[in-house]
Design a protein that fits this description.
The complex is a heterodimer of chains A (about 120) and B (about 120). With about 120 residues, chain A is an all-beta fold. Chain A is about 0% helix and about 50% strand. Chain A is built from no helices and twelve strands. In chain A, the strands form three sheets. In chain A, strands 2, 5, 6, 10, 11 and 12 form a six-stranded mixed β-sheet that branches. Chain B is mainly beta. In chain B, strand 4 and strand 5 form a beta hairpin. Classes of the chains: A mainly beta (about 120), B mainly beta (about 120). At the A-B interface, strand 5 and strand 6 of A face strand 4, strand 5, strand 9 and strand 10 of B.
Chain lengths: ~120, ~120
């Protein structure tokens, strides 16, 4: 069985602070894929990043960065110099091999960035 | 491309009523799926389809039917609505579940309330 845990239910920060959203996953598959999606207050789900299990390179995209560590089964997401527009619910998700391309989602982390 | 479209955006039903949630994509994606989002539970897979004429059950299929007569459309039918089906429903699509670069893109969602 696959499982994704986002232990942080809600995080509040002041604008310009850095914030890290944690994601821990469980899977028996040797090949798997990890994702982060953003859900702003408007409700849509916005794809942010996909990481394959065989690629442990960290990635940076502007103020966003992702740290993938297979040794600890974690795929954490850091926002540098947070902005009010970053306020959203962030979901981490896992897709294994087989199982119909099913995405297993974590319960999400609500990020509130205040002025 | 319009991407993944869903109709309606909002719907209120009475217990026992039936309805169909529409989902369409214009990206020639093979894979389509339906998820429901409930507070504190992330998103859970209801049904999915790997191509026209092929559907299968996800994690929470009871009370829902699907069909895939064309590549573009993947409607979700509630046969006899129950209050437990009050949720936000997301349709998603992706090019090919067998690809390591495959990413699911989500529609804007349908907020359903069953009284």
């Amino acid at each position: 069985a696959q499982k994704v845990t986002q232990a942080q239910t809600e995080i509040s920060v002041v604008e310009k602070e850095d914030v890290t959203l944690d994601c821990v996953y469980e899977t028996r598959d040797t090949t798997y894929y990890l994702f982060w999606y953003k859900q702003p207050p408007s409700g849509e789900l916005v794809f942010l990043i996909r990481r394959n299990s065989f690629d442990e390179q960290n990635e940076i995209s502007g103020r966003y960065s992702w740290n993938f560590q297979k040794s600890t089964s974690s795929f954490n997401f850091t926002i540098t110099a947070s902005q009010v527009v970053d306020s959203a619910v962030y979901f981490c998700a896992l897709r294994g091999t087989g199982g119909g391309n099913k995405l297993t989602f974590g319960t999400g982390t609500q990020l509130k960035v205040e002025l | 491309n319009a991407g993944v479209t869903q109709t309606p955006k909002f719907q209120v039903l009475k217990t026992g009523q039936s309805m169909t949630l529409q989902c369409a994509q214009d990206m020639n994606h093979e894979y389509m799926s339906w998820y429901r989002q409930d507070p504190g539970m992330g998103l859970r897979l209801i049904h999915y389809s790997v191509g026209a004429g092929i559907t299968d059950q996800g994690e929470v299929p009871n009370g829902y039917n699907v069909s895939r007569s064309t590549t573009e459309d993947f409607p979700l039918r509630l046969l006899s609505a129950a209050p437990s089906q009050t949720s936000v429903y997301f349709c998603a699509s992706s090019y090919s579940p067998d690809s390591s670069t495959d990413t699911q893109y989500f529609g804007p969602g349908t907020r359903l309330t069953v009284l």
